[in-house]
Amino acid sequence: MHDPPPATVVDALGWATEQLDAGGVPGPRREALDLWSVVTAVDPVVALARPSAPVPQAQWQHFKAAVDRRVEGEPLAYAVGRASFRTLELKVNRSVLIPRPETEGLVQAVLDWSQARSRAGTVADIGTGSGCIALSLAAEGAFDRIIATDVSEEAVSIATRNMALLRLTRNVEFRLGDLLSPLRLEVFDVIVSNPPYVTAEEFTRLDPAVRDFEPRAALVSGQKGMWHTSQLLQRAGSHLTPGGLIALEIDARRARDALHLAVQAGWDSPHIERDVFGRDRYLLARNPLTRTPGRSAR
Ligand SMILES: C[S@@+](CC[C@H](N)C(=O)[O-])C[C@H]1O[C@@H](n2cnc3c(N)ncnc32)[C@H](O)[C@@H]1O
Predict the structure, then answer these.
(1) Nearest residue CA, atom 27 of ligand 1?
(2) pTM
(3) Fewest Cβ atoms nearer than 10 Å: which of 146, 147, 202, 205?
């Protein structure tokens, strides 16, 4: 048996504001409006202009479920099953990380690099999650070929679904498997990754909205938070063309360690770039044209 919907939009928003406020959700009015807007696909400005519009039963059930999930502490993106990333609207659930704004900057760094070349070439995205990086590169770039991998079957399935929903003109090939293994013997012009980079101890101190809802395997990278970064820096060279780009999102607290690893592994011109919040967030480096023996990134 479904609850009957409140008579009007203003009643639904009033009910939601009370629930969210009682549940300790900050900014409950704004939150109620945002939830309403995502669930109904109606711009908040339009909703505000028609406060006495009736509330259809199906939308009410969906809205009520999303409000209940927010009251339980679940992040908004999971509560509504959607997240925005650059130009895209992506489907998300608790098997994939909610795409972050800093990762939008990682995509920008790759686009800037590819636009400065005569041809964009090919790209591999490692640990694709919702597919946000690979699908944005497909939507905004001019790459000849894009492959994206993840060790999580659920992630590959959501990313594949996102591609189908987006109906992009350029396809991404999603592959299941550990780090670079799904690339087999193939070589790319760019390898990009936002790998897990939180330490096991930091994970225990994360905001509960992250720790209790987002997948641990998408966040934690061993005791020191560097396992994935280190593996990629040691092994990605053999999957890149000479002069090809590696672009990794990193934890600002370990930017120096990441840079040190890149130097040790023999990458050319490794450097750190900052995100839009001024934090050291991206490690960029080129595959050397020739490798010095003993300093292999392979
Ligand atoms: C920080 S999330 C990033 C997801 C997405 N690229 C984004 O930026 O929102 C890291 C992703 O790496 C995947 N992952 C973790 N370990 C992996 C491994 N050994 N091989 C491939 N993917 C892995 C996780 O499943 C997760 O989807």
Answers:
(1) 129
(2) 0.93
(3) 205
